[in-house]
Amino acid sequence: MKKLILIALLTLALPARSQETKSLTLKEAINYALENKADAQKAKLKVENSTYQIQEVRSRALPHISANGTLTYNPILQTTVIDGASFGAPGTNIQAAFGQKWNSTAGIGLTQTLFDQSVFTGLKAARTTRAFYQINAQLTEEQIIERVANNYYGVYVQRQNLTVIDITYKNTVKVKNIIQGQYDNGLAKKIDLDRILVKISNISTQRQQVLNAVQLQENALKFYMGMPIATPIEIPQTEFEITPQAFTENPNTETRTEFQLLKKQEQLLEFQKKSVLAAYYPTLALSAGYNYIGQGPKIPWGAKPSDGVYWSDFSSIGLNLRVPIFSGFDTRSKVRKADVELRSIKADLTDTKLALDLAFANAKTQINNSISTINNQKSNVQLAQEVLSNTKNNYIQGLTSLTDMLDAENAFTEAQNNYTAALLDYKLAEIQLIKSKGELKTLLNN
């Protein structure tokens, strides 16, 4: 027992095995999201559910068959007053009881719709509903791709900012070591050493803030991917590159998923109007039934004529015609309401087309501006690095002040951050351009 307790304590004392870091390209991140994100799964379930909706509407056009059975006990039989002339007693009335104490009926019934305009319209609408959910699933996938891509590049930028902070920290520590050596040899002032120590402390604080921003951005990415938050991830450096974009004339917005979805909604509203108009049409249905009835002074089940119980069958076949005449203007009001909804969605289609054209134009403008900014910031980073290197050499040789060197270092850090921010702006604009052309799924091929 002591050995078992010792083994258990040693097991608990062992450090937990760290979870393996998952390297993610943009394509892998998107594929993971499309497989695991709840939004994508729910959209697929709606497509599956639309199949059952079609079957549900189709069932209204198919025959309905049902079996029925009853057992009735009549403690007091109803009496009827009849003319006694039928029984040889003219001028008198006879009170007679009809029926038996026990009755049992078993049968089968069938109803078949022969004509119902709402059924035919509903079947067409159900098929359109399936197409609507298929387009909606496609739109959901595109929205997932867009969110994942935006947050993916957001993580990259935050990590780049962290890299800049780390490089700045290392360079500042080197300067601190130089000043420390000069101070120890009486060649530097204590205020210079204190200032560089304050600088290092500030950089450490900034690093913690950026580190928190990285964690928050990674958590957001994992959420939009449907990935467990505790999973460590890594984004390869090669994923963040400037690639040329083909600028064309305004793309055909009618091929965009958002526009197609509205068109399907318009079709559904048209079917809704036709379904309402179907209330003006007559309906015709066939009904048929076959039943078996047993009657007697005792429970008919298993009883025979010798027990006073008699069984007989009966059947019926009929046509049920319903012709609407006046509904208090209910149908007319519903038709006009459906017309208003149709005019409303037509206005949405016009506005959506305009919004999609605007998104394309804005994305092109942002791409051009971002490329120009990237080129300027890249040159600025190189220049700031040269200034910092020269200023460091001059400081070591005593030709410039610590203030100039710290200013040069701050300028270099700012230039690097501006360059990284310009890269992010470009990538976000690139995603919007791809989206405006209806080509978000091409990111799966990268």
TrEMBL record:
GO terms for cellular component: cell outer membrane; efflux pump complex. Residues 1-18 form the signal peptide. InterPro entries: OMP_efflux, TolC-like. Keywords: Cell outer membrane, Membrane, Signal, Transmembrane, Transmembrane beta strand, Transport. One of its GO terms (molecular function) is efflux transmembrane transporter activity. The keyword Magnesium does not apply. It is found in: Cell outer membrane. Its main location: membrane. Pfam families: OEP. The keyword Nucleotide-binding does not apply. PANTHER family: OUTER MEMBRANE PROTEIN TOLC (PTHR30026:SF20). Belongs to the outer membrane factor (OMF) (TC 1.B.17) family. This is Transporter.
